[in-house]
Amino acid sequence: MPKVIIDGFEIEVPAGTTILNAARQIGGDLVPPAMCYYSKLKDSGGKCRTCLVKVTKGSNTDPRPMPKLVASCRTVVADGMEVANITSPEVLDARKGVVEFLLINHPLDCPVCDQAGECDLQDLAFEHGSPKTRYEFERRTFEPIDIGDKIKLHMNRCIMCFRCVFLADQLTPERLHGIMNRGDHAEISTYIEKAVDNDFSGNMIDVCPVGALTDRTFRFTSRVWFTNPVLAHRQCNTCCGKTILWMKGDEVLRVSARTTFYGEVEEFICNTCRFEKKNAADWIMEGPADISRHSVIAQNHSHTMQVLKNGVPQYDDSQKPTPKVKSEIE
Amino acid sequence: MPQKIFLEHTGKADLTQIEHYLKFGGYSSVAKALNTLTPEEVVAEVKKSGLRGRGGAGFSTGMKWSFLDKKSGNPAYLVCNADESEPGTFKDRYLMEFNPHMLLEGMIVSAYALAANTAYIYIRGEYWYLIDILEKAIAQAHAKGFLGKNILGKPYSLEIYVHPGAGAYICGEETALLESLEGKRGNPRIKPPFPAVYGLYGCPTVVNNVETLAAVPWIINNGSAAYATIGIGASTGTKLISACGNVKKRGVYEIELGLPVEEFIFSDEYCGGMANGKKLKACVPGGSSVPVLPAHLLLKTEKGEPRLLTYESLADGGFKTGSMLGSGGFIVYDHEQCMVRNTWNFTRFYRHESCGQCSPCREGTGWMEKILYKIETGKGNMADIDLLWDIQRRIEGNTICPLGDAAAWPVASAIRHFRHEFEWHVTNPAEATKPGAVYNGNLLSVV
Ligand SMILES: Cc1cc2nc3c(=O)[nH]c(=O)nc-3n(C[C@H](O)[C@H](O)[C@H](O)COP(=O)(O)O)c2cc1C
Ligand code: SF4
Ligand code: SF4
Ligand code: FES
Question: pTM, whole model, 2 decimals?
Answer without folding.
Answer: 0.93
